[in-house]
Amino acid sequence: MSPDGLALIGAMALEEIARAGWQADAVGGLTLGADPVSYAIAYASQLAGCPIRAFTVRKVSKTHGTGRLIEGPFRSGDRVVVIEDVITTGGSALKAIEAVRDAGGRVIGVLAVVDREEGGRDAIESAGTPVVALARATEIVARMPQPEREGQSSSR
Fold this sequence. Notes:
Layout: H1 3-20, E1 26-30, H2 34-47, E2 53-57, E3 70-71, E4 79-87, H3 91-102, E5 106-115, H4 120-126, E6 131-136, H5 137-143
Parallel strand pairs: 1-2, 1-4, 4-5, 5-6
Antiparallel strand pairs: 2-3
């Protein structure tokens, strides 16, 4: 949720959505993980001159007020990219996909910041929705500094 993180993720995610060929009207996913990513994408899209609205999917419907499961400027008929911060099992994305479809939206894909590579991507794609991720866990781990082993001297 840092300003520099939001600026980076919003622009990268918007670029990945375009690369996938998804022409989205709106982006959003299950609160709380998807919220900052969705808002960053919406902001980046406005700066790029191709506005995409952001919304939030509640974990459960409110028992008062409108009682809606989806909050924000979502509209029935929207082409939607469901957003995930991290895909592990795929459960959060699948719940958001169901909520969007139940509200009349058309899910065109799932975009994750990180795919933990623990089966979630396969679960989502097996349910008929394509997935793209900005990074995979193995890519992140490969770039992490490795601790020095005991008995080995540093090359510094």
